[in-house]
Structures are given as C-alpha cells and as structure tokens.
UniProtKB/TrEMBL annotation:
<feature type="region of interest" description="Disordered">
    <location>
        <begin position="181"/>
        <end position="202"/>
    </location>
</feature>
<protein>
    <submittedName>
        <fullName>Helix-turn-helix domain-containing protein</fullName>
    </submittedName>
</protein>
<dbReference type="InterPro" id="IPR001647">
    <property type="entry name" value="HTH_TetR"/>
</dbReference>
<dbReference type="InterPro" id="IPR036271">
    <property type="entry name" value="Tet_transcr_reg_TetR-rel_C_sf"/>
</dbReference>
<keyword id="KW-0238">DNA-binding</keyword>
<feature type="DNA-binding region" description="H-T-H motif">
    <location>
        <begin position="27"/>
        <end position="46"/>
    </location>
</feature>
<dbReference type="Pfam" id="PF21597">
    <property type="entry name" value="TetR_C_43"/>
</dbReference>
<dbReference type="InterPro" id="IPR049445">
    <property type="entry name" value="TetR_SbtR-like_C"/>
</dbReference>
<dbReference type="InterPro" id="IPR009057">
    <property type="entry name" value="Homeodomain-like_sf"/>
</dbReference>
<feature type="compositionally biased region" description="Low complexity">
    <location>
        <begin position="181"/>
        <end position="194"/>
    </location>
</feature>
<keyword id="KW-0805">Transcription regulation</keyword>
<keyword id="KW-0804">Transcription</keyword>
<dbReference type="InterPro" id="IPR050109">
    <property type="entry name" value="HTH-type_TetR-like_transc_reg"/>
</dbReference>
<feature type="domain" description="HTH tetR-type">
    <location>
        <begin position="4"/>
        <end position="64"/>
    </location>
</feature>
<dbReference type="Pfam" id="PF00440">
    <property type="entry name" value="TetR_N"/>
</dbReference>
Length: 202
C-alpha cells in the first residue's frame, strides 16, 4: 500500500526543514518544532538522527558517485584523481553529514534506509575504481587503501573548516603530492631529516 499523501508531505517537510540545519548538530526536537509537526511524526519517519542524516545525504551520495564516473572517463589519470578528490572535498563541505554516512558504517541499518546503503555502495565502488586506476598508472602509491583515502579527504575537509575556503586547493595539492609513489633511491628520500633541515637553514 502506498504511503498516505499526508505522510509523504510530512516526510518531505521534515527533510526540507532539516536541510536548513547543520547536519553535524541535528536535534529531532528542533526539527519537529521548526517543521510544525509533532515529535512522534518525526520519529515515525526518522527514528534516529542518523536515519535523518542518511536521508539528507542520499542526493549528495548520488552526486559523489557521478563525480567518480567522470573521473573514470577522464583520459588523464592525474587530472582524474585530482579532480575527484576536489569534488569529494567540495561535497563534504556542502553536506555536513556526508562524512558520518561514509565513515560510521556500523551505525547504518540497511533495512531502515536501503536507498542510502545502495547509493553509498556505488560511491565506494567509484572510490575503488578511481584509486585503482591512479595506482595502476603510477599516480598514487600502491599501499594506499580506499578507506585511508576517504579518511584523508575527511582530514582536508576538517582543515578547510578550521581555516578558510581558500585553503582548499593548497591542501589538496599537498595531499596529492604526498600520495605519489616514493622514490627510495632519491637523495631526498635517503638523507636524514635533521641534515635536510640544517642544510635548509644554513
């Protein structure tokens, strides 16, 4: 049986109001008040804050999956990888709940919100495809995992939030540089750190 029209409207109203709030500090009581519905109505649709955050993030997950598709289609592996990282950071900055949805996997109930689980699965597949290609083409070191890459992106997101939007490109460039394959035989890699520092100071 299809949901009643009033139930659909209530759910849409709750999501509309929740989008105006910071996803990192959502409170269901506040959402109920601002949406003009009873707290029981909110709990019927979203029994936990996590469930509401997942609903809010589905659209962003779809956009992140599309970003991965664009990266895979980009012929230049370095441009593809750098572009995907930028898209991922931008989307996490826009959607404060996305980090939670992507990292706190144990808290997700797929029966409660299967749409989010499916979208997230596609995102992780996209992450894996983009990273695997970058590693295969010598753009990124081989020992980096998808989970580690995702956490590094979260780190850049946090750094930008603590600093300024203008920091984003610099931090991304530093991140990409740090993920390049190592060159163990190069002087920079074999010279002890204190000696390099002394030479630079002198």
């Amino acid at each position: 049986m299809s949901p009643r029209a009033d139930a659909v409207r209530s759910r849409e109203r709750i999501i509309e109001v929740a989008r105006r709030h910071d996803a990192r500090s959502l409170r269901l009581n506040d959402i109920a008040r601002d949406a003009g519905v009873g707290i029981g109505t909110v709990y019927r649709h979203f029994p936990t804050v996590r469930a509401l955050i997942e609903a809010l993030s589905v659209e962003t997950l779809v956009r992140l999956g599309a970003a991965a598709d664009r990266a895979i289609a980009e012929p230049d592996a370095h441009a593809a990888f750098r572009g995907f990282l930028e898209d991922a950071v931008v989307l996490q900055l826009q959607d404060g709940g996305l980090e939670t949805v992507l990292t706190d996997l144990a808290l997700t109930d797929p029966d409660l919100h299967d749409e989010c689980s499916v979208a997230r699965g596609k995102v992780f597949a996209g992450y894996d495809a983009v990273l695997s290609r970058a590693q295969r083409d010598g753009v990124v070191r081989d020992d980096l995992s998808v989970a580690q890459l995702q956490r590094l992106i979260c780190g850049v997101e946090h750094a930008v939030r603590l600093g300024a939007p203008a920091d984003r490109d610099l931090l991304l460039d530093i991140l990409v540089s740090g993920m390049r394959p190592g060159t163990p035989d190069s002087p920079a890699a074999t010279t002890p750190a204190p000696m390099r520092r002394s030479a630079a100071i002198g």
